[in-house]
Amino acid sequence: MAAVAIAARALLLLAAVGPAAALWPQPQLQRSPPAPARCPLPPARFHFAHAAGSAVGPGCAVLDEAFQRYRALIFSAARPAENKQPWRTSCTELLVSVTTPGCNGFPSLDSKESYKLNISRDSMLLYADAVWGALRGLEAFSQLVGRDENGMYYINETEIVDFPRFPHRGLLLDTSRHYLPLKAILETLDVMAYNKLNVFHWHIVDDPSFPYESFTFPELSKQGAFNAMTHVYTASDVQTVIEYARLRGIRVIAEFDTPGHTLSWGPGAPGLLTPCYLGKDPSGTYGPINPIFNTTYQFVTSLFQEISSVFPDHFIHLGGDEVDFTCWKSNPEILAFMKKMGFGEDYTKLESYYIQRLLDIVSSLGKGYMVWQEVFDNGVKVRPDTIIHVWKNNLPYAEEMANVTKSGYRALLSAPWYLNRISYGQDWMAAYQVEPLKFKGSSKQKDLVIGGEACMWGEYVDVTNLTPRLWPRAGAVAERLWSNATVRNLQDAYVRLADFRCELLRRGVQAEPLFIGYCDHEFGGF
Amino acid sequence: MGVAGLLVGLLLVPAVLLGGSFGRGEPPPDPQPALSEWETASDAVPEDSLWPLPQSIRTSRLRLQLAPERFQVVHGAGSSAGPACGLLQDAFRRYFEYMFGRSRWRKPYRASPSAQGELSQLQVVIASSEPGCDSFPHLASNEAYHLTVTEPVAILKADEVWGALRGLETFSQLVHEDDYGSFLINESEIYDFPRFAHRGILLDTSRHYLPLKSILTNLGAYSYNHVYTPTDVHLVIEYARLRGIRVIPEFDTPGHTQSWGKGQKDLLTPCYSGERPSGSFGPVNPILNSTYDFMATLFKEISSVFPDAYIHLGGDEVSFDCWKSNPEVKEFMKKQGFGTDYAKLESYYIQKILDIVSSYNKGYMVWQEVFDNKAELKPDTVVEVWMANNYAHELSSVTKAGFTAILAAPWYLDYISYGQDWTKYYRVEPLNFPGSEKQKKLLIGGEACLWGEYVDATNLTPRLWPRASAVGERLWSSRNVTNLQDAYKRLTNHRCRMLSRGIAAEPLFVGYCPHEARWR
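Structure tokens for the assembled complex are given below, as produced in the milestone run.
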């Protein structure tokens, strides 16, 4: 029957009972005394407050809302009448001190996320350079709070100095192959914050559907969405996502992938896609964006003007992957254009021609860009600050990382982190064991690796299975990108991740199990 | 049961048998759906959404309208069942809600422009003088039905209530909503019966505890402290019965019993390290009389709690290491003349358990090892074939020896992989093993297994459905129903229907449903 016998089973089973204060992802440095003092946290009296001299005070939405959120998360199961005990030495206040002012901006690639946390009997202090670091520190603080058998909340004396290893720690969701309701995206942002992930890569449109409601080109979603009324993201949905993410210190990078992966754009933008030919006649099907007409570039300019104003992040993801040349090759006008331009038979030149013009358009809008690796592989001239997104797995991705950084470009790694590709067993381990900097190159090259992204492509994923497929597996990627390179012990990670998964259940997240066992708070949210 | 933490594998024989752009580096799906299949066709024909496909179906293009405020499901003239049949009354209400429940149809009724008449009733006629309203479904239950849909009434004829339940499901699948919100059904006639009598799902509630609610959801569609109380068990059995589903409990011995040890002293074999007990325990200790006293009492309780004629006794994956280390076990081996053949000791144990269970007038199911190790089995024993390696050969051996077999080997749904793996389950032909006609008849069905190493309430439902539906059709429909394109289309629709009934079934491929899953 159950033919799986895992040798380490007995050991792994113990893991359900981890230490109360295991942290995920592991901080860079944590010091606790050998016998740490345990300080009670009385739910009725506990509060967060701004330290005297902090550059940020009350009225800062990022912190005010985070205080509320983490209060609710920490004491979610607290019964009201619990403050009867005479709290003599209790921890009633976490003082938050931020050095740099700034509350209304958006997080960016350069944002400072470092923080220090000092928990002692006398005081609890959280220091951060910027509010974004304070958010990371609040998350760590919430994970430090335990609850004993009598239901008493407590925190142990400890000291944490923490900062991210990589500044770009992302998660990609694909809302074109299946539509994801707004609530599913917002919950994902919550769980990303629990994992200290800081970039939501929104692969918002693709071949199957165009759910983004454009105010410049409303026909795109009217004609291209699965259902123009129900399966769309309105302007207010998009604003909600951006603000919800900002309050959690998460950047939103929108991807509008061209010239391939655009079939759903066709019905709402007549003349945009290349008509494919069968012999001498149009076959009725369409290929990539038609790169030979000026009207195409007028359209692209207007669309990206809108996108640049809607999405505040400096970067836009321009895609540029998997362009199929079959349709271009069949079209006589394209053939004539190729001849005129002197491209010969080399269609990558035509692709580069398109991409080049697109990059110029986006640059002129004052935005930076990210592209999938093909754009680099095909030798397109890109700006020096371009980020090359490495995703292919057919060649060792380490080689590509070496090539990209050798050319002086910044690299972002996703190749080993396609979480949509499920398999039997504890596949989080493979994701965890990746070492992003393990490629041949100078330390200068290594510095060009800005991080990575876990990808959840949507072929087989919709709202029915998104959350358990994503969590806690994406947590493995999150720790790899946040914690020190030396943090790679699988046994230790198993114990902490199993514990963190139980914490996710307690917070109402439908995170699937790592292996056999149970949690005190099982999932009950049907 | 009162026996907390026992391995309870619930075997459920289901009543409700119940499109490409490829991302970076995605292999093309198999089968490759055409672009148009991303969308649910609005000019659908009735067969497009039936799952599993009935044995025989004829439909007309003539459409009848159903008005929810007038339409009724009733007992027909001459039926041996009437309003006193709670099982059918319940089913009538349930299916009415599936068909009309989710729409706000209480608005003024308008005739649909595409309807050519109205269907006002579905009359259900049970022929047998023993309709089965208060009984439990069993292996020989008659699940056949005959459904005729013509204006003004549809007739559903079945010998027993079990066939009526299957027919109600089919009827509900024939009803569809048009673009204007009208409910329509095509005039049609269906003769239907299952190909195999045993069509099961196995859930594992030991490796992860499954809340009662998620078990019940998956039977059609709470409990604290991780224990199933007698009330819980009774609830599962009755919920299943009302849907024509048998509940077969598995209490697997002598291996897979680690969790029994804490609650029952001396039941498990103490393992030795050299001359001393190591502190760990192995399988059930087969050499003590007290073991058999305990088992007699336990199985007496199980026999009375679970009404089905069968109990699954497990008997798989017994590791001999611990027995080999124990001096008392070795002494016993010598005394019995077993030599060093521990399979004989295993058979000795199993034999005694089989005798105990027989004495309670229960039949038993066992995993294939029990047969492989040549334990003496009652002729009506059901042998469950689970080892993936050459299962056709095993089916051949089991049936050649005259035993009844059920197949699970190719249907371990806990073994997930990337892509459309339902096609793999769908393509299995259970009777594709060497053997005579008589042998083929001994294969009574199969089971989709969802073992619990990596499954709990968080991911159970999307992992089970619609993948288990592929097994459902293989076991219900005719052998020649094998077209993957056609199955893809129908299963996609069936999955959307499950969503509209509140089951979070995962997608087969790219696309959408008119009514997506509700976010919790």
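Chain B touches chain A through 67 residues (CB under 8 Å). Chain B is about 30% helix and 20% strand. Further analysis is deferred to the final report.
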